[in-house]
Amino acid sequence: MPRILTDSAPVARGREFARSAADSAADVFHPLIMISRGLRRLLAAGRRRWSDTPEDRRGSLLFMAAGTVLAVALVPYGPLLALVTLMGAAAWAGRERPAEVPAGPADAETDRLRALYEALVPYFAIEGDPTPLYAHDGDWESVFSDYEFDETGRPSRFTLKYPPYFTDGDAASRARIEQVLHAKSGRGREYHFAWDEEANQLTLTVLPPLPTDIAAQQFVTTHGETVLGFTDPDAVQRTLPVAAGEATRDEPPVVWRTGLRSTEPHLLVLGRPGAGATTLLRSIALQALFYGDVLVIDGNGTGEYACLAGRTGVMGVETGLSGAMATLEWAAHETERRLITANRARQAGQQAPDDIRWPLWIIIDRPTALAHLAAAEGREDPQRLLQVPLRHGRAAYVTVVVADQIDCAGMLSEPVLTHTRARVVLGPAAPEEVEAVLGAPPHTTPAADVPPGRGYARLGSGPVHRLQVPVTPDPFDDATSEAHRQAVLSLLPERAATVGAAGDAWEVEDTVDAAAMVDTVAAAGTVAAAGTANTASMVDTAGADRTADTEYADDGAVTDEPATPDRTPNPTTTPTPTTTVTPTATPDPIATPATTVPDNTPRTGGAIGVDLLFGGVAPAPPSTPPASQEATVPPERG
User: Fold this and answer.
1) What element of type H or E holds 228?
2) Any domain includes 423
3) Which residues lie across from 311 on neighbouring strands?
4) Judging by DSSP bridges, how do beta strands 267-271 and 398-405 pair with one another?
5) Same domain as 296, residue 268
6) E-assigned strand segments in 37-179
């Protein structure tokens, strides 16, 4: 085929040239087109006038028209003036007239306002009122003002007046009026109700849907600020630049502040399954890794936080009951250690050490599931171990984030419900449920169908905000889009290579020691029983000594990093295996390999370390802040 038919560039240029030529011709011939349109309109008007004239008067009309033409022809310059007058009249008649704007609402819109008025009469009218504002077949125009309608004819905004004797301070009375307006204005939309008690006016506004195209990203915030999501523009006085696709725009955020001066240091997230609670916790963890260390406990055990395991700053990702109990016990000891160290520094007139001021985040998903497992095994509730971090976490730079299902809210412990003053409710929920969780009713009607991550948030005693959580899916999920997967992976820190190498070395050493122990037991025979008893007594003695030293040392998450003081147990109080291994002069074949275990060497297999003296699993040592950090505020992790 010829190239001119296959090449699209010449065709596009030809179309652009034709379009430009047509626009230029329309501009040039616009006066002629307008005059032609006017002549047609004048001719049509003349025909209508002739058809409307009775037949007995048509003769006189023709005689008058002929006389006018003769007079114009005899007057000097008469035909020229008549032609100019005709062209001017044609141009005036052919002009484009703007569409007439109706003075009031259309008939359908009037019927809707009248229906709203009649529906409110039983609630606003009382007997004995001499001049009732609301009455059957009353004047609705005196009640409604500033009304607007959408393209479907439903009201999108209006302001109504109500009588002064209406109990607008009663929440139940307000709820009845809002329910009636919601039903009569059209379901499937979210409405905002603004009560002006001073002027006795109620303004209803249809809220636009919150944006759902904001993915996980590094938000422009300062130290101690966490973006929970985004809300309505008139709800907050701050905006953040966010990237949505290829464009960048400003969106109003819901910012949660933590730290020493925070009045809401801990957060509670409740929602239905699939509402986006795990997504919110994952978003918080990614933001917290820039300014602190994160400890994650996944009560679901579904691996939603597997992308965080082994990363720099992630002290552990636990999914089992035993590991969660040991981790929470370590967190309680770490909080106490931070409090004691900070108190000693203040008594000495010094600033708290850097490792104390480096924030620690404890993120727990579904603690009630772990509590159910603990009750089935006859163990204590893991939530009891959260009492110390919740009560004293703010002074120790420890922040606790708890998420659970709204149906299991009754199983949450008293410290969790008392000390989590920042609340979030996600997913579809009744107004009564939202008020029970947040402590205040929302000023908007709940939507029946909401996207994941949609809900309400309230920080302390502040107002209730609509909330849309940024899209932060699991990057290991096959259903995740590639754009969202890359957005999450770009925020993850680098893997902790040094910690992983230490864990691998200890795994090899443990394997060799275990093999030697098995061989020795096979050769020694009956001596193995005595050795086992001695080993058990060694662990019991070490555990007792460690319990006595809990006030001054942590729970066994030892480290060999010199930049983080007070992270390792006191070597003067921790018993060594050589002092309790051999009760007799006969060498113990079982206890001999145990003497080769170094006392202060980290046992970290990946993200979680094993502590022999603790008797369980303890988190890996926290990441040390950079040495170049400032003296007052720990720096952001690069």
Assistant:
1) strand 225-230
2) yes
3) 495
4) parallel
5) yes
6) 144-149, 155-161
- Give helix 367-376 / helix 321-347 axis angle, nearest 10°: 120
Residue that has been written with the tokens 């976490």 in this structure: 393
> CA 299 from chain center: how many Å?
21
132 in any annotated domain? yes
The secondary structure of residue 596, as a DSSP letter, is: G
CA distance 127 to 228: 50
* pLDDT tens digit sequence for 299-322: 988 899 999 999 999 999 999 999
Q: What is the pTM of this model?
A: 0.66
Q: What is the pLDDT of residues 575-610, one digit of tens each?
A: 333 333 333 344 443 333 333 333 433 333 333 333
- Residues 251, 53: Cα–Cα separation, whole Å: 67
Q: Which of 456, 454, 441 is nearest to 268 (CA)?
A: 456
In a domain, 215, yes or no: no
- Name the residue among 358, 444, 349, 344 with its Cα closest to residue 398: 358
Using H for helix, E for strand and C for coil, what is the string for 483-497? HHHHHHHHHCCCECH
- Reduced to 3 DSSP states, what percent helix, strand and coil does the chain have, rounded to the nearest 5? 45, 15, 40
The angle subtended at Cα 131 by Cα 127 and Cα 133, nearest 5°, is: 85
Indicate if 244 and 178 belong to the same structural domain: no
The dihedral sign for the CA sequence 373, 378, 379, 384: positive
